[in-house]
Amino acid sequence: xxxxxxxxxxxxxxxxISIVPNSLEYEGGEAEVIVENATTGGGRNESVHxxxxxxxxxxxKFQMYNTRELDQLIAECKSQTGGNxxxxxxxxxxxxxxxxxxxxxxxxxxxxxxxxxxKVPFEFEGDQMV
Length: 130
Description:
Elements: E1 9-12, E2 15-17, E3 25-27, E4 32-41, E5 44-52, E6 58-65, H1 70-79, E7 84-92, E8 95-106, E9 119-126
Antiparallel strand pairs: 1-2, 1-7, 3-6, 4-5, 6-9, 7-8, 8-9
């Protein structure tokens, strides 16, 4: 039996944070593959496959609720451009499964909403997942 990774903890710069349930999304930083056509002569073609290294970027996205502490957290993350570390941790069969994203920057302009269900998006980009 395999268990899906569904209830991950998020650790931001060595501090556990609380996120909106089901808002976590991440990309490991695998490069996109571009496929082009090349002619081999005589009316024959073959495909050429290339990795686009410019897309090999690790990304982590989640939402948080707008709390008193949020402005300070945003300021800290913005001040550590390229220096944030995001870890995703889940306990599976008595072992921690950890995905680490180093060298991250908070890249989005963080829009804050007010209200009882106000959610604030965080988007980090940087080094590939290890």
